[in-house]
Amino acid sequence: MFITGASRGIGAATAQRAAADGWSVGIGYNSRSDAADEVAEACRAAGAQTVSIQVDVADETGVIAAFDAVTDALGPISSVIVNAGILFEVCRLDEMSLDRVRRVMDVNVLGAFLCAREAVLRMSTRHGGSGGTIVNVGSAAAYLGSANEFIDYAASKGAMDTMTIGLAREVADEGIRVNCVRPGLIDTTIHADAGVPDRVELLKGNIPMQRGGTPDEVADLILYLAGDRSTYVTGSLINVSGGR
Prior knowledge:
The chain is 46% helix and 14% strand. The protein is α/β, with parallel strands linked by helices.
């Protein structure tokens, strides 16, 4: 299994739970090498073979090299979790710079396409692979819109929804299943990136379950879709949002 954005939050939780379930785990990270090392150590403690790979998913050459490095270290990849993503501080669209929007789209959209492409090239029976799974980590923002917060991020996750549906249909007869998990308000450090570290606490009253979710709750669904308990599930967009 190769997980992008695995040094914190949902990606880190998925890596550690995957290791406990017996997966070998490739840990992709961009800048937090210390955090990635901690996740890798936890995976090894669970008995998993693990490798950490630095990669900016918006860089094509880097993505190809990362997939090659994971394959060299752990063997053929059978599941890819497309989790890396970014957002910036809360603001309105009319306050956003072009550089900000471009970076969000480069990482969240182009990065997802690049990672999915490399997964298909390695796993598809059309290319000599043995099949596998792709799980995209989207967001409830895709259908909520994130007005007055980060419409750019919401739009990028909407693109991931569409890619999931199209790619699932494209490779369904090539041994690959593609699904998307759409987390809602999850208690991770991404809210600090938006300049609102207590965002979950502030907004939990809008959630029918009256609480934020945990990274482990999302990771459990990701691993269900990645493994062999969901063999007739593809092209699905599944919310993990407490009913919101």
